[in-house]
Amino acid sequence: MMSNDEGFLRRAIGLAASAREAGNPPFGSLLVGPDGTVLAEERNTVLTDRDIAAHPEQKLARWAARELDAETAAATTMYTSCQPCTMCAGAIDRSGLGRVVFALSGEQLTGLKPPADPPRVLLEGPALFEEARVPLEGYYR
């Protein structure tokens, strides 16, 4: 970690406390630009916004993808109160952000929560490979 990381992590933890006070899950994040200025900050709002994707990391990754050029994004750090979930990690990766620093690991978070219920959705597949691949062929080359 760098010398100023702890201060930014403390701000992320404060944003998490603010989210909880507002009735949301306690998670907070901020983006710090290459020059050390705070570019944006967010709190979890999944309950008050009635939006299952309103994680602060997701919201900031989307903001960065819209508002920052690739070079600035790559030099920007996200500070977050907890290790990003899989959904948020994918968004962060696609946004081009260069670094993420988190306070709690996913494993530490799991130790603070009651055991999770198994997923309730039934996933079936793969199926129709020959048909499904047609719109994708050549796209990622």
From TrEMBL:
GO molecular function, one term: catalytic activity
CMP/dCMP-type deaminase domain location: 3-136
InterPro entries hit by this protein: CMP_dCMP_dom (IPR002125), Cytidine_deaminase-like (IPR016193)
Highest taxon above the source species: Bacteria
Matching SUPFAM superfamilies: Cytidine deaminase-like
Gene3D superfamilies in the cross-refs: Cytidine Deaminase, domain 2
PANTHER family in the cross-refs: CYTOSINE DEAMINASE FAMILY MEMBER, TRNA(ADENINE(34)) DEAMINASE, CHLOROPLASTIC
Protein name: Nucleoside deaminase
